[in-house]
Amino acid sequence: MKAHLYCLILLCLFTKATRAQIGFGGTPHPSAAIDVPSTTKAAYLPRMSSAQRIAIVNPQVGAIVFDLDKTTLYLYDGQNWLPMATTSANALAPVSRTASDGMSGDGMGVLGDSFGQSVSIWGDYALIGAPQDVVNGQLSQGSAYVFVRIGRAWTQQAKLLASDGSGGNAFGSSVSLSGDYAFIGTGVNSAYVFFRNGTAWNQQQKLTSSANSGFGQSVSISGDYALVGAFYETVGENSHQGSAYIFMRSGTTWTQQAKLVSNDGYIDDAFGSRVALSGDYALIGAPQNDANSATNTNQGAAYVFSRNVFVGSGNTWSQQAKLTASEGSPNDQFGWGVALSGSYAVVGSVFNDLGANTDQGAAYVFSRSGTSWTQLVKLTAFDGSTDDHFGGSVSIGGDYIIVGATGADGDGYINQGACYVYQRSGINWVQVRRVDDNSPPNTRNGSSVGMSNGTFVIGGPGFQLGKGKVSFGVVE
């Protein structure tokens, strides 16, 4: 009897296999590979922990499991495990991209490129720096990649190189986008402007400054104006006080309009380490400034400059405010990250201590009323820990702020990195999301961030031993 039953089962399986269909409890629908009709029973997919899911060897596209730790279904898309079911739009996972996507330029994202060390986003375009990229055998010549969003997908459109690039230039150390213009800084006192015509990006001009000033390691562009930090520049007798330069475009030519220095600058302030530009306002970080007290070594500050546009003013720029943390302490390095949009400024304080958590980090939001700037709120991560370095990168776009925490651990992985998104509610900013993924240790997601009207990009330059990656996502 058992032998007959065994043969019957084999016959059934063979019959189903020849039709490439399996039906339980009835004949399968012609369009179905597997059809399980039921009104009283459930179907169960493989169930496992996050660690077990991540440990699956060579998963194939379309693999599906239920993650017991995340309490949701995950789908493997060929590169990443993506959550299929979420409790809200804010839980949607970002999509990762590397320099090899799109096969533009050499299409060779390799170990050590540091792709994602710098990022910027403007509408449907994103600019990604890879300052350690090897170009034609030249070590660390550097490059930058343009990605464009078509529908819901981000694809690589172009790879940008300096026309006179050479080894050690670190082109892509800093990047910024505004409209059809891309602004890319280097590690050797220069910055380059590119202009988009259709799908082509062409170099328009190279901007330079004096040697050994750090010019180009931070850049920002807004409309017809560009801002370049020179954090290492000596000002008067003050070595490494730092400065910043404003350039203005007329036609296809960019001309220096102003040199900005703080009115209370001192030795080693590193003014210009980070810069942001929005309309007629510039925000410049000086993370090693002593914040009005000799005892507050490296507490840090950020300076707001405004452009005087009245007739006869000559479009001059003048310091409007010095921003400091209301409860700052020595070595907080307030000003490590800066962002500016309209009447709001965001300043990161990457080594800020919170309770027993050394160097957890924080970020501060300021608002402008007339010519006055007021601290609104101090942002911290709800699950922050020691050495998270929250605030090392910040960006603001519309009603959203994103803050990077490169040292945050996730999924048991040290220095995986994470980012936190905040939404404006009146005068308050409320955390609405933590963004992380299943990146390996030392990916350092959040080393750079960009936000544009609810769409964000996150750089993880440590991914795969420095090959680097970026992640695109939407808040809602």
UniProtKB/TrEMBL annotation:
Transmembrane segments: none annotated. The keyword Acetylation does not apply. The keyword Glycoprotein applies. This is FG-GAP repeat protein. Keywords: Glycoprotein, Repeat, Signal. Coiled coil: none annotated. It holds the Pfam family FG-GAP_2. Residues 1-20 form the signal peptide. It comes from Spirosoma profusum.
